Amino acid sequence: xxxxxxxxxxxxxxxxxxxxxxxxxxxxxxxxxxxxxxxxxxxxxxxxxxxxxxxxxxxxxxxxxxxxxxxxxxxxxxxxxxxxxxxxxxxxxxxxxxxxxxxxxxxxxxxxxxxxxxxxxxxxxxxxxxxxxxxxxxxxxxxxxxxxxxxxxxxxxxxxxxxxxxxxxxxxxxxxxxxxxxxxxxxxxxxxxxxxxxxxxxxxxxxxxxxxxxxxxxxxxxxxxxxxxxxxxxxxxxxxxxxxxxxxxxxxxxxxxxx
Length: 259
Ligand code: NAD
Known about the structure:
- It contains eight helices and seven strands; from the N terminus they run βαβαβαβαβαβαααβ.
- By secondary structure, it is of the alpha/beta class.
- Helix 5 (153-173) links the parallel strand 5 (135-140) and strand 6.
Protein backbone atom coordinates (compact mmCIF):
# COMPACT_ATOMS: atom_id res chain seq x y z
CA UNK A 1 0.00 0.00 0.00
CA UNK A 2 1.38 3.39 -1.05
CA UNK A 3 1.35 6.60 0.96
CA UNK A 4 -0.64 8.33 -1.81
CA UNK A 5 -3.09 5.58 -2.85
CA UNK A 6 -6.19 7.09 -4.47
CA UNK A 7 -4.77 10.64 -4.64
CA UNK A 8 -4.61 12.78 -7.75
CA UNK A 9 -1.63 15.09 -8.17
CA UNK A 10 -0.85 17.91 -10.59
CA UNK A 11 2.78 18.93 -11.11
CA UNK A 12 3.69 21.98 -13.17
CA UNK A 13 6.96 21.50 -15.04
CA UNK A 14 6.85 17.76 -14.42
CA UNK A 15 8.60 16.34 -17.48
CA UNK A 16 12.18 16.98 -16.32
CA UNK A 17 14.27 17.63 -13.22
CA UNK A 18 12.74 17.92 -9.76
CA UNK A 19 9.14 17.81 -11.05
CA UNK A 20 9.80 14.60 -12.95
CA UNK A 21 11.50 12.93 -9.95
CA UNK A 22 8.53 13.93 -7.80
CA UNK A 23 6.05 12.60 -10.37
CA UNK A 24 7.84 9.24 -10.32
CA UNK A 25 7.86 9.16 -6.51
CA UNK A 26 4.12 10.03 -6.40
CA UNK A 27 3.37 7.25 -8.93
CA UNK A 28 5.39 4.77 -6.88
CA UNK A 29 3.26 5.72 -3.84
CA UNK A 30 0.00 4.99 -5.70
CA UNK A 31 -1.07 8.45 -6.91
CA UNK A 32 -2.42 9.35 -10.33
CA UNK A 33 -0.32 12.19 -11.70
CA UNK A 34 -0.66 14.95 -14.28
CA UNK A 35 2.68 16.26 -15.47
CA UNK A 36 2.84 19.56 -17.33
CA UNK A 37 5.34 21.09 -19.71
CA UNK A 38 5.21 23.30 -22.79
CA UNK A 39 6.23 20.82 -25.48
CA UNK A 40 3.90 17.88 -26.34
CA UNK A 41 6.79 15.96 -27.92
CA UNK A 42 8.86 16.18 -24.74
CA UNK A 43 5.72 15.31 -22.79
CA UNK A 44 5.19 12.14 -24.84
CA UNK A 45 8.83 11.20 -24.34
CA UNK A 46 8.58 11.74 -20.57
CA UNK A 47 5.44 9.58 -20.36
CA UNK A 48 7.16 6.79 -22.31
CA UNK A 49 10.19 6.90 -20.00
CA UNK A 50 8.05 7.01 -16.84
CA UNK A 51 6.12 3.92 -17.89
CA UNK A 52 3.21 4.78 -15.59
CA UNK A 53 0.43 3.61 -17.94
CA UNK A 54 -2.94 5.28 -17.39
CA UNK A 55 -1.84 6.63 -14.00
CA UNK A 56 0.15 9.43 -15.59
CA UNK A 57 -1.13 12.03 -18.06
CA UNK A 58 0.63 14.92 -19.82
CA UNK A 59 -0.98 18.34 -20.12
CA UNK A 60 0.72 20.89 -22.37
CA UNK A 61 0.59 24.48 -21.15
CA UNK A 62 2.72 27.50 -20.35
CA UNK A 63 2.66 28.51 -16.68
CA UNK A 64 3.51 32.09 -17.64
CA UNK A 65 -0.17 32.90 -18.28
CA UNK A 66 -3.21 32.75 -16.00
CA UNK A 67 -5.11 30.85 -18.70
CA UNK A 68 -2.31 28.30 -18.94
CA UNK A 69 -2.27 27.79 -15.17
CA UNK A 70 -6.04 27.46 -14.91
CA UNK A 71 -6.07 24.98 -17.80
CA UNK A 72 -3.42 22.78 -16.13
CA UNK A 73 -5.35 22.53 -12.84
CA UNK A 74 -8.82 22.32 -14.40
CA UNK A 75 -7.47 19.78 -16.91
CA UNK A 76 -6.28 17.59 -14.03
CA UNK A 77 -9.82 17.51 -12.64
CA UNK A 78 -11.29 16.91 -16.11
CA UNK A 79 -8.98 13.94 -16.66
CA UNK A 80 -8.79 12.26 -13.24
CA UNK A 81 -11.99 13.62 -11.62
CA UNK A 82 -10.41 15.63 -8.78
CA UNK A 83 -7.22 17.22 -7.48
CA UNK A 84 -5.75 16.31 -4.10
CA UNK A 85 -2.17 17.52 -4.52
CA UNK A 86 -0.78 20.54 -6.35
CA UNK A 87 2.99 20.88 -6.76
CA UNK A 88 3.60 24.32 -8.32
CA UNK A 89 7.10 23.43 -9.38
CA UNK A 90 7.95 25.17 -12.66
CA UNK A 91 10.13 28.25 -12.49
CA UNK A 92 13.50 29.77 -13.05
CA UNK A 93 14.98 33.08 -14.13
CA UNK A 94 16.92 34.47 -17.10
CA UNK A 95 18.89 37.64 -17.79
CA UNK A 96 20.40 37.97 -14.32
CA UNK A 97 22.19 41.21 -13.51
CA UNK A 98 23.07 43.30 -10.47
CA UNK A 99 20.11 45.40 -9.28
CA UNK A 100 21.68 48.58 -10.65
CA UNK A 101 21.64 47.12 -14.17
CA UNK A 102 18.44 45.04 -14.16
CA UNK A 103 15.76 45.41 -16.81
CA UNK A 104 12.07 45.53 -15.97
CA UNK A 105 11.59 42.66 -18.42
CA UNK A 106 13.92 40.33 -16.50
CA UNK A 107 12.22 41.11 -13.18
CA UNK A 108 8.74 40.77 -14.69
CA UNK A 109 9.56 37.45 -16.36
CA UNK A 110 10.92 35.96 -13.14
CA UNK A 111 7.89 37.11 -11.14
CA UNK A 112 5.46 35.66 -13.70
CA UNK A 113 7.33 32.36 -14.11
CA UNK A 114 7.75 31.76 -10.38
CA UNK A 115 5.39 33.85 -8.26
CA UNK A 116 2.35 34.56 -10.47
CA UNK A 117 2.29 30.96 -11.72
CA UNK A 118 2.26 29.77 -8.11
CA UNK A 119 -0.57 32.17 -7.25
CA UNK A 120 -2.65 31.27 -10.33
CA UNK A 121 -2.34 27.49 -9.87
CA UNK A 122 -2.86 27.72 -6.10
CA UNK A 123 -5.99 29.84 -6.48
CA UNK A 124 -7.43 27.46 -9.08
CA UNK A 125 -6.64 24.38 -6.97
CA UNK A 126 -8.28 25.94 -3.89
CA UNK A 127 -11.53 26.22 -5.88
CA UNK A 128 -11.65 22.40 -5.63
CA UNK A 129 -9.83 21.80 -2.35
CA UNK A 130 -11.92 24.16 -0.19
CA UNK A 131 -15.28 22.49 -1.05
CA UNK A 132 -13.78 18.98 -0.68
CA UNK A 133 -12.18 20.06 2.64
CA UNK A 134 -8.88 18.40 1.86
CA UNK A 135 -5.76 19.04 -0.13
CA UNK A 136 -2.03 19.41 -0.22
CA UNK A 137 -0.33 22.36 -1.89
CA UNK A 138 3.44 22.35 -2.29
CA UNK A 139 5.13 25.42 -3.72
CA UNK A 140 8.63 25.52 -5.18
CA UNK A 141 10.85 28.03 -3.48
CA UNK A 142 14.63 27.66 -3.07
CA UNK A 143 17.45 28.30 -0.66
CA UNK A 144 17.29 31.65 -2.50
CA UNK A 145 13.79 32.06 -1.03
CA UNK A 146 15.52 32.40 2.34
CA UNK A 147 18.83 34.14 1.68
CA UNK A 148 20.02 36.85 -0.71
CA UNK A 149 22.66 36.38 -3.39
CA UNK A 150 24.44 39.14 -5.31
CA UNK A 151 23.44 39.18 -8.97
CA UNK A 152 20.40 36.91 -8.50
CA UNK A 153 17.86 39.39 -7.16
CA UNK A 154 15.14 38.57 -9.71
CA UNK A 155 15.15 34.94 -8.57
CA UNK A 156 15.68 35.73 -4.88
CA UNK A 157 12.76 38.20 -4.88
CA UNK A 158 10.38 35.82 -6.68
CA UNK A 159 11.21 32.87 -4.41
CA UNK A 160 10.83 35.02 -1.26
CA UNK A 161 7.42 36.12 -2.59
CA UNK A 162 6.38 32.48 -3.03
CA UNK A 163 7.26 31.84 0.61
CA UNK A 164 5.11 34.79 1.70
CA UNK A 165 2.13 33.59 -0.33
CA UNK A 166 2.59 30.08 1.05
CA UNK A 167 2.61 31.22 4.69
CA UNK A 168 -0.54 33.32 4.32
CA UNK A 169 -2.46 30.69 2.36
CA UNK A 170 -1.59 28.10 5.03
CA UNK A 171 -3.10 30.37 7.68
CA UNK A 172 -6.29 30.78 5.65
CA UNK A 173 -7.04 27.09 4.97
CA UNK A 174 -5.50 25.37 7.98
CA UNK A 175 -8.83 24.34 9.47
CA UNK A 176 -10.14 23.02 6.14
CA UNK A 177 -7.91 19.96 5.87
CA UNK A 178 -5.56 21.71 3.45
CA UNK A 179 -1.83 22.13 4.01
CA UNK A 180 0.36 24.62 2.14
CA UNK A 181 4.13 24.34 2.33
CA UNK A 182 7.12 25.30 0.25
CA UNK A 183 10.22 23.28 -0.49
CA UNK A 184 13.50 25.18 -0.57
CA UNK A 185 16.16 23.13 -2.37
CA UNK A 186 19.80 24.00 -2.63
CA UNK A 187 21.56 23.73 -5.97
CA UNK A 188 20.83 20.64 -8.07
CA UNK A 189 22.39 20.13 -11.51
CA UNK A 190 19.25 19.90 -13.65
CA UNK A 191 18.59 21.15 -17.21
CA UNK A 192 17.77 24.65 -16.05
CA UNK A 193 20.91 24.85 -13.95
CA UNK A 194 22.97 23.83 -16.99
CA UNK A 195 21.08 26.32 -19.20
CA UNK A 196 21.00 29.35 -16.90
CA UNK A 197 23.95 28.56 -14.62
CA UNK A 198 26.71 29.98 -16.84
CA UNK A 199 24.97 33.39 -17.18
CA UNK A 200 24.05 33.44 -13.48
CA UNK A 201 27.68 32.63 -12.67
CA UNK A 202 28.88 35.46 -14.90
CA UNK A 203 26.60 37.96 -13.13
CA UNK A 204 28.28 36.87 -9.88
CA UNK A 205 31.78 37.14 -11.35
CA UNK A 206 32.28 33.34 -11.53
CA UNK A 207 32.41 30.60 -14.17
CA UNK A 208 29.92 27.69 -14.14
CA UNK A 209 32.21 25.23 -12.33
CA UNK A 210 33.01 27.97 -9.81
CA UNK A 211 29.29 28.53 -9.22
CA UNK A 212 28.63 24.82 -8.56
CA UNK A 213 31.69 24.68 -6.30
CA UNK A 214 30.46 27.72 -4.37
CA UNK A 215 27.03 26.13 -3.85
CA UNK A 216 28.64 22.89 -2.60
CA UNK A 217 31.08 24.70 -0.33
CA UNK A 218 28.42 26.84 1.36
CA UNK A 219 26.47 23.68 2.37
CA UNK A 220 27.25 21.44 5.35
CA UNK A 221 27.36 18.34 3.13
CA UNK A 222 29.85 19.94 0.68
CA UNK A 223 28.02 18.59 -2.37
CA UNK A 224 24.96 19.46 -4.41
CA UNK A 225 21.58 17.94 -3.64
CA UNK A 226 19.75 15.42 -5.88
CA UNK A 227 16.27 15.64 -7.40
CA UNK A 228 15.23 12.58 -5.36
CA UNK A 229 16.05 14.45 -2.12
CA UNK A 230 13.27 16.90 -2.96
CA UNK A 231 10.88 14.26 -4.34
CA UNK A 232 10.87 12.26 -1.10
CA UNK A 233 10.12 15.35 0.99
CA UNK A 234 7.22 16.11 -1.36
CA UNK A 235 5.87 12.58 -0.76
CA UNK A 236 5.88 13.25 2.98
CA UNK A 237 4.18 16.64 2.59
CA UNK A 238 1.56 15.16 0.24
CA UNK A 239 0.76 12.15 2.44
CA UNK A 240 -1.40 11.68 5.54
CA UNK A 241 1.83 11.70 7.55
CA UNK A 242 2.27 15.35 6.54
CA UNK A 243 -1.07 16.51 7.99
CA UNK A 244 0.62 18.37 10.84
CA UNK A 245 3.01 20.30 8.62
CA UNK A 246 1.73 23.55 7.15
CA UNK A 247 3.05 27.04 6.54
CA UNK A 248 6.56 25.59 6.55
CA UNK A 249 9.46 26.45 4.29
CA UNK A 250 11.27 23.12 4.19
CA UNK A 251 14.99 23.42 3.47
CA UNK A 252 16.47 20.60 1.35
CA UNK A 253 19.79 22.32 0.89
CA UNK A 254 22.33 20.22 2.76
CA UNK A 255 22.48 22.74 5.59
CA UNK A 256 23.09 25.87 3.52
CA UNK A 257 20.35 28.15 4.83
CA UNK A 258 20.68 29.23 8.45
CA UNK A 259 16.93 28.60 9.02
P1 NAD B 1 14.35 21.58 -15.09
O1 NAD B 1 14.80 22.48 -16.17
O2 NAD B 1 15.10 20.29 -14.87
O3 NAD B 1 12.81 21.21 -15.28
C1 NAD B 1 11.89 22.24 -15.46
C2 NAD B 1 10.55 21.68 -15.88
O4 NAD B 1 9.64 22.77 -15.99
C3 NAD B 1 10.59 21.01 -17.25
O5 NAD B 1 9.63 19.98 -17.24
C4 NAD B 1 10.17 22.15 -18.17
O6 NAD B 1 9.60 21.68 -19.37
C5 NAD B 1 9.12 22.84 -17.31
N1 NAD B 1 8.88 24.26 -17.60
C6 NAD B 1 9.80 25.25 -17.64
N2 NAD B 1 9.18 26.42 -17.94
C7 NAD B 1 7.86 26.15 -18.07
C8 NAD B 1 6.73 26.93 -18.39
N3 NAD B 1 6.82 28.25 -18.64
N4 NAD B 1 5.51 26.32 -18.43
C9 NAD B 1 5.39 24.99 -18.19
N5 NAD B 1 6.45 24.20 -17.91
C10 NAD B 1 7.66 24.77 -17.85
O7 NAD B 1 14.35 22.49 -13.75
P2 NAD B 1 14.45 22.13 -12.19
O8 NAD B 1 15.83 22.43 -11.75
O9 NAD B 1 13.84 20.82 -11.89
O10 NAD B 1 13.54 23.32 -11.60
C11 NAD B 1 12.23 23.13 -11.12
C12 NAD B 1 11.97 24.16 -10.05
O11 NAD B 1 12.90 23.99 -8.99
C13 NAD B 1 12.10 25.62 -10.50
O12 NAD B 1 11.05 26.38 -9.93
C14 NAD B 1 13.43 26.05 -9.90
O13 NAD B 1 13.48 27.44 -9.66
C15 NAD B 1 13.43 25.25 -8.62
N6 NAD B 1 14.74 25.04 -8.01
C16 NAD B 1 15.74 24.46 -8.71
C17 NAD B 1 16.97 24.30 -8.10
C18 NAD B 1 18.14 23.72 -8.86
O14 NAD B 1 19.27 23.94 -8.41
N7 NAD B 1 17.92 22.99 -9.94
C19 NAD B 1 17.17 24.69 -6.77
C20 NAD B 1 16.10 25.27 -6.07
C21 NAD B 1 14.87 25.44 -6.70
